[in-house]
Specification:
It contains 13 helices and 2 strands; from the N terminus they run H-H-H-H-H-H-H-E-E-H-H-H-H-H-H. Helix 5 packs antiparallel against helix 6, helix 8 crosses helix 10 (about 225-250) and helix 10 (about 225-250) packs antiparallel against helix 13 (about 280-305). The longest helix has about 35 residues, at about 85-120. It is mainly α. Strand 1 (about 170) and strand 2 form a beta hairpin. The protein has helices at about 1-30, 35, 45-55, 60-70, 85-120, 125-140, 145-155, 180-210, 210-220, 225-250, 255-260, 265-275, 280-305; strands at about 170, 175. It has 2 domains: about 1-70, no CATH class; about 85-305, MetI-like fold (Orthogonal Bundle). The model has no long low-confidence stretch (mean pLDDT about 80). It has a two-stranded antiparallel ribbon. The termini are close together.
Length: about 325
């Protein structure tokens, strides 16, 4: 286990460096960063000053080395728009994104897994049709379209939920969102709900055809006991992996939802930084997001191995 974790950590570091390199190159492919960071009316002297201040006048390899050095100590410099450290802005926005992703995951677990279980337990029935339809809808309907429809119906027409912003109540020093989180979380959960319904249904159908399940039925064990002790327990193993992967998707893929609902999280911060040509903030957000995704995937792999003793780490 220790060797496996060390190996995965080294792979994770290499992957993060690769992501940073891609982000670094893509940002430079857009043109001269110094020219992009100033207004169109800026003089050549102003552009040269920005170029020197941010180190854009140095060779690319030196810029990337300095970028890596700053990334691994959490120093991405000052945000050009907010005039604050980029990492400070990320830390301030992080709780809102974590809360949104967590509630979205809860929606997916509450809706997707039961539907998948019912569909897999009752193949070729109406319940199975519901499960397959849920999986299809979750993978085909764009989340941003659903977000707009939710705003029109539940915010504009029915006035049940606020359309934009993040309303909170402070409990024990922590700001918890109120009903303002319902619509963005539900829209964000659409794809994950479909994935969980589809994977759960497939896992149950596969396990039901195993020899030990048929043996349990032949011994006269009650159906409820077979499902609880054998089918559901073994179906949980592949579900663990998909939940971990999908949670990383919810954390990193919320840019459209946060922008539509004006949710003050990392997704909206990234959109604002791109729009405002905030070079350092774009790099910082991309780095932080990649680290979160890689760490969550690593934890998912470890949890999968602990849940399934048949897996041996090498």
């Amino acid at each position: 286990m220790k060797r496996y974790i060390i190996s995965r950590l080294l792979q994770a570091i290499a992957l993060i460096i690769g992501v940073l390199f891609i982000v670094f190159i893509m940002l430079h492919l857009t043109g001269d960063p110094a020219s992009l960071m100033v207004s169109r009316n800026a003089s050549p002297e102003d552009i040269e000053k920005i170029r020197h201040e941010f180190g854009f006048d140095k060779p690319l390899i030196v810029q990337f080395a300095n970028f890596l050095k700053g990334a691994f100590i959490g120093d991405f410099g000052m945000s050009l728009r907010y005039r604050q450290p980029a990492m400070k802005l990320i830390i301030e926005r992080l709780p809102a994104t974590i809360q949104l992703a967590t509630v979205a995951l809860l929606f997916s677990l509450i809706i997707g897994i039961p539907i998948g279980l019912l569909g897999g337990s009752n193949p070729n029935t109406g319940l199975d049709l519901v499960a397959r339809t849920t999986g299809l809808i979750g993978q085909t309907i764009p989340s941003f379209w659903l977000a707009l429809m939710l705003i029109v119906v539940f915010a504009v027409k029915l006035h049940w939920f606020p359309a934009f912003g993040r309303e909170t109540v402070r409990i024990l020093g922590i700001n918890f969102p109120t009903k303002s989180i319902v619509l963005p979380a539900f829209a964000l959960s659409l794809f994950t709900t479909g994935q969980l319904a589809r994977f759960t249904r497939s896992a149950v159908l596969e396990i039901k055809n195993e020899d030990y399940i048929r043996t349990a039925y032949s011994k006269g064990l009650p159906r409820r006991i077979i499902y609880v002790r054998h089918i559901l327990k073994n179906a949980a193993i592949p579900i663990i992996s998909i939940v971990g992967v999908q949670f990383s998707y919810l954390l990193s893929g919320s840019i459209y939802i946060e922008t539509i609902f004006s949710w003050p999280g990392l997704g909206q911060l990234l959109a604002e930084s791109v729009f405002n040509r905030d070079f350092g903030l774009v790099q910082a957000t991309a780095f932080f997001t990649s680290v979160v995704v890689v760490v969550l995937h690593l934890l998912t792999d470890i949890a999968y191995g602990l849940a399934d003793p048949r897996i041996k780490y090498r």
